[in-house]
Structures are given as structure tokens and as C-alpha cells.
Amino acid sequence: MPNVSTLTTLDPVLLVQLTDSHLFADADGSLLGLKTAESLQRVIDLVRAEQPVVDLLLATGDLTQDATVEAYQRFRQMTDVLAAPARWLPGNHDDLIPMAEAAVQSRLLEPVIDIGNWRITLLNSSVAGKAHGYLEDDQLQRLAQALSEAPERHHLVCLHHHPVPIGCEWMNAISLHNATAFWTVVDRFPQVRAVLWGHVHQTFDQERNGVRLLATPSTCLQFEPGSTDFKVSTQAPGYRWLRLLPDGDVQTGISRLADFTFKPDYSANNY
């Protein structure tokens, strides 16, 4: 598996995660009154201001809301300005067929990446027509193979759906439904350092058996942490940066837009 860059195993790796952009074919498309392309553009501008060199961009699902080729093409064009290798994985609002059409003549959908002293594995937890996640046998096998074939590397595992409860009761029903099977694989491999996901539109940072568990704000609207029922937060859109160190340590942080105000219009359209 070739590296995606010229980094050596002694170099730190700077990742940027963009997630849950929910773009439409219409550039003015909005969710609950928030124009998703406009908020993504502002987040991209923030990344460019704060991260002069990005070694890899990870887009962890729900790139689009309407799963159109045009929306995926818009995401690809908008993020091209970051001048970084990129990889995508699908979320519950995505469709792999138009996604693959928009990713033509690229490596955007390659699921395993070796970079620096790390291996990053991207899994497809989406279920057609459903909001919850599930890892089919081929995805669990991909994970086990990727981990077993590179025991000398540190590993970051990425998917869309949350494999642990995050404290939002309403999101329990749309989590990864076979999380036990996922953790059964992960727990076999001590080289797994972190698991990263999207879907929850909020920050999460905990640890399980020495593995860092990370979730990230959406580039558009946010969900209220700790909410019992669906509730949109007034927090600003943002992104996560991760610095993967050669010794397996993970440094990471969240950056959000400044001067952002948003009042959700629940009558505009349903999420």
C-alpha cells in the first residue's frame, strides 16, 4: 500500500476532518434555514487560515443531503483549494453510486491509507434508506485485514456512525447497530490508537481501553449535546484537526467559526 505523501515514518501527520456538510445540487440549498454550501465555504476558509499544510483531508460522511452527483462535485471542487490528498466515506444521507461518479479519476474512495507511521482505515457503515449504521461482514473483514497486515503501524479507524453512546438519547436509535461486532475486531489489535466518526454534529472526546474516541462538529448545523429529543444547537460550524505523531500519540482540537449566529427555522424543512 503506497503512502499518499512523501512523509516518512518519523514525520508527524496533520489531518483535517470535515464532516456532515449536507450539500445540495442547488448551491443555495438549506437545512432549517442554514445554507450548507455557504457554511462549508466559511469552514474551508478557516482551515486555510489555520492549517497552511494539510497532509490528508478526511470527509467522514453526509457530504450531501440529496445524494446528487452535482452536490458531490460541488464538495470536491470546494475542498480542492486545500491542496491536500483527500478520502471520503459515506454516511446515511449519501449514495455510493453518485458519490463514485463524482470521485471518478481520483483516489477519494480508497479505504486504506498508509501515511507517516500510521494506517488509516475508512469503513462504510451506511444502510440504504436508514439513518442508523451497520457494518456488513465485508467491512468488518476489511478492518481486520487492514489491522492485521500492518502490525508495525499505529492505526486510526474512521466511520460515519457512532459506535458508543454519546449522551444524546434520541441518537441511540441511529447509532452503529452492531457496535459489539466492531469492537470485537478492534479489541484484538493493540495498535489501534483512535476511532473517528461524524454523524452526531457535535464534539466528543473520550477513551475506551486506551483507544481515543473522537467525533466532530458538522460544517453546517449542530445538534445540542445531551439532548433527549432532536434539538439543534446555536454553536458554530467547525472542523477537527488531528496531529498523528510517530510514537502513536494523537494531538487534536476543534476549531469553529467566529461571528456566527443562527436561529433554526424548524418550519423551513425537516432535517
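(the above was protein one; protein two follows)
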Amino acid sequence: MIFFWAFVVGGLISAVGQLMMDVGRLTPGHTTVTLVVAGAVLGGLGWYEPLIRFAGAGASVPITSFGYALTTGALEELKRHGWIGVITGMFEITSAGISAAIIFSFLAALVFRPKG
């Protein structure tokens, strides 16, 4: 049943993003930022963690989980190190994913020729 709910929740998040672009006429950049901010707000309110427990990868894979991760890291480090922890916590918890994206993008750029 976990696969079903992961599919439904992930599909709903993706459908919302697609509707934002098709109906709302938002650019992909505006849509991405809106979904990241929505994940951050839901994470800050404590509503995203139950969604991840319920839907698993359906909630942890979409872009909304990046906003959730930023907020979670900032709040955890705020408790440990005070206000300076807000900034360091965001980088600490998301650095592996960002580093992987940069490294894999660089490697792909070495292997493939851009069309232009």
C-alpha cells in the first residue's frame, strides 16, 4: 500500500506543479521556487514530516522536499548553535545533494556535447 500512496502523493505534487505552469502560466522557474517555498512552509509548520511518513518517496523525492530539508536543517541548528546555526544548518543538511548535482552535471558536460 505504501507504493500506492507514494504514487498518489508524488503524482499530486507533480500535478500541482504542472497546473501552475499550464493554468497559472507560471514559468518553470517560478513553479520550482513556489514548490520549494511551499515545502519549506509546510516543514516549518511541522506538516511535511507526517506526509513523508505517510507517503515515503512520494513526498521525499519531489522538489518540495528540498524546501522541507532546508527548513529542517535550519531549525535543528538554530536549537544547537543559535541564529548562526540557521545559515549553517541549511548548508549542512543539503550539501550532499547539491554537491552531487554539481558533480554529476559537470561529468555530463564532459561526456555530452551541447547543442547550440
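Reviewer note on protein two: The radius of gyration is 16 Å.
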